Amino acid sequence: MERSERVTTAGIYIKDGRVLVAKRLSGGSISEKWEFPGGKNRWGESVAETLVREYSEELGVDIIVKDVVFTYEFENKGTLYHLKAALIDIPRPDFTLHFHSEVLMVGRERLLALDFAPSDCQIASYLVENNFL
User: Fold this and answer.
1) 43-96: per-residue pLDDT in tens?
2) What is the pTM of this model?
3) Which 3-state string (H, E, C) describes the chain?
């Protein structure tokens, strides 16, 4: 059986030494877990296009996508995911939550204590180990 592959994205918004995280609503594969918002790439989308769409759909905000700073591969239910995490800016962070119960701006200590979705744990560790926070 051939394994499928997908690109998935995460946006990293850092301001004043703190990073944006969001807690998923109950239900689904990452129910009530913390994550860096983003999502699966649609066919033909760039990383930036995916993140702009996902932040609009999930949090109701416009973003500016900067550089991809972290990549990671993982497998879930027979699909190989290529996670690409990019730094972003949110000019007007006035959120409307559609898929999350809350959003927080957290520093490094709180970040490492949160119950993240598995792939997002890798991003959190990378940010702390490489002094983004």
Assistant:
1) 889 999 999 999 999 999 999 999 999 999 998 888 899 999 999 999 999 999
2) 0.92
3) CCCEEEEEEEEEEEECCEEEEEEECCCCCCCCCEECCCCECCCCCCHHHHHHHHHHHHHCCCCEEEEEEEEEEEEECCEEEEEEEEEEECCCCCCCCCCEEEEEEECHHHHHHCCECHHHHHHHHHHHHCCCC
